[in-house]
Design a protein that fits this description.
Receptor-associated Protein; mainly alpha; transmembrane helix; single chain; cell membrane
């Protein structure tokens, strides 16, 4: 039984490493690979057969080995909390960065130079990302690729729209900045509304026992003590 679980775990570790068969074998045998910390998807894929074996025996281990690649891929797609915080902070910094870029371009600074100057002034995480955009603009606006989920996607779309449509870049940046400010205000209002919902349960947990101890218990004690046996 243990041998079956070990075989399933080895297969899970093999399939959890990205790339083809030769790439997987080189990655698993590489000393540099062994020296680094094991990635979380591989750990999840290896543990799946053992967890199945512990819960349901041999068939559980076999089932865990079958679903191990799926588990590894699912864990690999999860976004770390630090990356979510970084993306959220960059999205909050972007409206100011677009405002500064529009002001610099309106003052006669070229777009690429304006973004580079704003990148130097903005703190992380947005500053380094803007530097990458500025370097890509040295080639062309089409060379900039921030990805659909990147906080820089609105700025990249604005640059590409201005380059392809012929609309003045200052007008496009101003419209983008106003839209970003509206989105940020809307997200802040939504967050403020969610605070009331999230605090309802803790307040109820704290208030109901206090109400019971202060209001109900003394009344019950008084009622029982007034009864003559």
């Amino acid at each position: 039984m243990t041998v079956v679980a070990l075989v399933c775990a080895a297969a899970a570790a093999y399939t959890a490493v990205p790339g083809g068969a030769a790439g997987r074998w080189r990655a698993l045998r590489s000393p540099k690979r062994r020296a680094r910390k094991l990635p979380l998807p591989m750990i999840a894929g290896v543990l799946a057969p053992f967890l199945g074996f512990a819960l349901a025996g041999v068939w559980g281990g076999i089932l865990g080995g079958v679903v191990a690649p799926v588990v590894a891929r699912a864990v690999d797609r999860l976004e770390p909390a630090s990356r979510r915080r970084e993306r959220r902070l960059a999205a909050e910094q972007l409206p100011l960065a677009v405002d500064l870029t529009a002001a610099a371009v309106a003052g006669g600074v070229p777009v690429q130079r304006a973004i580079a100057l704003v990148a130097e002034a903005m703190p992380p995480p947005l500053g380094p990302q803007l530097e990458s955009v500025a370097r890509s603009l040295l080639v062309s606006a089409d060379a900039v690729d921030a990805g659909g989920g990147s906080p820089l996607a609105p700025l990249v779309r604005a640059l590409q729209r201005a380059a392809t449509s012929g609309v003045p870049i200052v007008a496009v940046l101003d419209d983008t900045a106003r839209e970003l400010h509206r989105d940020r205000q809307a997200s802040r209002r939504d967050a403020a509304r969610r605070v009331g919902v999230r605090t309802a349960a803790p307040l109820g947990v704290c208030f109901l026992p206090a109400f019971f101890l202060v209001g109900i218990v003394p009344a019950l004690v008084g009622a029982f003590t007034s009864i003559s046996w």
